[in-house]
């Protein structure tokens, strides 16, 4: 642990933080910016973060473990209810909550809904993070900061900090880490140095495939797609300097009618999804990959407890 040089009077801190906020608020992008490598899955479509992905920020004075939760929303299906339970459990367990509100959008009912829930969690310190500041001009940003301050006062939430950031421009991301760290308890590192996430590789691989499959599909489809990696095995008999990892994955949809959309004319879409996600998986795992991707119908999986368990929810 030679990298951990620090003044003797600064205690080492370690703990958990989670970002909350309505869909598309920029939580995953911020997680990635803080960790410095792509670990959470971002998408311009709402509610794509299904798994609790942890990104780990290693610093000389602290280790900050980021838990990326799905968005809290009105549950319409069994999946929706389970997701909300996951969110609330996470909130109660972490050391600090970062509430993300985009700078370029007025505070709406979705934000207030979450803020009310937050107000009910008394003990955990809450930092208001005004995200995407690159999309707002100075005046808009100032008004948003005031509105966030007012939201806290109206609901009886005492913000530990209000921080404007742009994850994509890398603006104030370091400052945010500086402000989160003092809110963590003193303690030794929770994860080995160098670990970026403890999310099993298979889940991350599945998320990368899902992300690629979501790009450019019709609006109602995202909720119907789930990906399960069945197997990841090094190809046998390869020379040591030319390894190949075989990945077998299934892409589940809810109805046979969705098959055509996912596969595309003459399989063109699926091929593209495979190529795109393979590049990302190779970057993530640092090894060449052979990706074997199949589309399967799991009828109405969102409403079926047995199917949900099988798909990892
Ligand atoms: N311009 C700009 N765009 C951003 C920034 N942060 C995120 N975005 C974009 O906003 C969209 C949503 O970002 P995500 O990080 O996926 O949002 P999220 O809150 O994790 O979304 P869910 O997973 O749906 O809850 C994506 O298209 C991002 O590229 C930012 O700082 N600046």
TrEMBL record:
Region annotated G3, chain positions: 68-71
Span list, region G5: 165-167
Record's bilayer topology term: Peripheral membrane protein
Domain Era-type G: 13-186
Record GO terms (molecular function): GTP binding; GTPase activity; ribosomal small subunit binding; small ribosomal subunit rRNA binding
Record-listed GTP binding positions: 21-28, 68-72, 131-134
GO terms under cellular component: cytosol; plasma membrane
Subunit composition and interactions: Monomer.
UniProt name for this protein: GTPase Era
């Amino acid at each position: 642990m030679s990298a951990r040089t620090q003044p003797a009077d600064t205690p080492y801190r370690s703990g958990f933080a989670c970002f909350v906020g309505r869909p598309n608020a920029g939580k995953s992008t911020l997680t990635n910016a803080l960790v410095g490598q792509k670990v959470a899955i971002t998408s311009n479509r709402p509610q794509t973060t299904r798994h609790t992905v942890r990104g780990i920020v290693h610093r000389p004075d602290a280790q900050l473990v980021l838990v990326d939760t799905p968005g809290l929303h009105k549950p319409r299906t069994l999946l929706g209810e389970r997701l909300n339970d996951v969110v609330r459990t996470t909130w109660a367990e972490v050391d600090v909550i970062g509430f993300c509100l985009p700078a370029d959008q007025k505070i709406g009912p979705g934000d207030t809904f979450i803020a009310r829930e937050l107000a009910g969690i008394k003990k955990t310190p809450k930092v208001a993070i005004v995200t995407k500041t690159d999309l707002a001009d100075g005046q808009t940003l100032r008004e948003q900061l005031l509105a966030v301050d007012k939201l806290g006062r109206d609901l009886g939430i005492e913000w530990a900090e209000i921080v404007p950031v742009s994850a994509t421009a890398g603006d104030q991301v370091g400052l945010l880490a500086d402000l989160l760290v003092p809110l963590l308890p003193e303690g030794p590192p929770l994860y080995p140095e160098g670990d970026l996430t403890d999310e099993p590789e298979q889940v991350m691989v599945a998320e990368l495939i899902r992300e690629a499959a979501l790009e450019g599909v019709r609006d109602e489809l995202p909720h119907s797609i789930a990906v399960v990696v069945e197997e990841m095995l090094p190809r046998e008999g390869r020379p040591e300097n030319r390894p190949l990892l075989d990945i077998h994955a299934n892409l589940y949809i809810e109805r046979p009618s969705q098959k055509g959309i996912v596969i595309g004319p003459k399989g063109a879409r699926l091929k593209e999804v495979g190529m795109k996600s393979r590049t990302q998986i190779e970057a993530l795992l640092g090894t060449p990959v052979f990706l074997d991707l199949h589309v399967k119908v799991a009828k109405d999986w969102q409403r079926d407890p047995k199917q949900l368990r099988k798909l990892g929810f």
